[in-house]
Amino acid sequence: MRTYAVWAHRLSALKDLPLLLLRLVLAYGFYLPAKMKWADIHGIGDWFVQLHIPLPYVSAYLVGITEAAGVVLLTLGLFVRYITLPLIFSMIVAIVTVHWSNGFAAGDNGYEIPLYYIAMLFTLFVFGSGRIGIDFFLERKIR
What we know:
Elements: H1 2-12, H2 17-39, H3 41-50, H4 56-76, H5 80-99, H6 112-127, H7 134-142
Helix pairs in contact: 2-4, 2-6, 3-4, 4-5, 5-6
C-alpha cells in the first residue's frame, strides 16, 4: 500500500499536465474550422441558411468569433471556464444540425468528435485551466 501512496504522490505533481494537453488539443482542433469559417464567412452563412439555423449570417460570425477566441484563450489558459460554455453550445448545435443524422462514427461524419469535444470542454469547465495557464496567475493575484 505504501508503494501506491508514493506513486500517487508523484503522479499528483503532474495533475495540471492533462489540463494543458486538453486545452492545446482543443485549441488545435478548433483552429482549422475557425480559419475555414473566416476564409469564407459569407459561404458559411449560406450553408447555415440551408441548415435552417436562425439568423444564419449573424450565427456564422458568432461561431467564427467563438472558435477563433477559443483557439487563443485555450492556448493561453485565459478565461478558460468562460470560453468553454459557448464552445459547448456550438458543438451541441453542430451535432443537432449536421452530425446527428450520420450516426455516431467519426468516419461517417457522425457526432463522435463533437461529443469528445464536449466532454473535454466540460472537463475544463469543471477543473479550469490548471496551474499552467494565465488564469492560475490571475486567480492568485486576486486572492
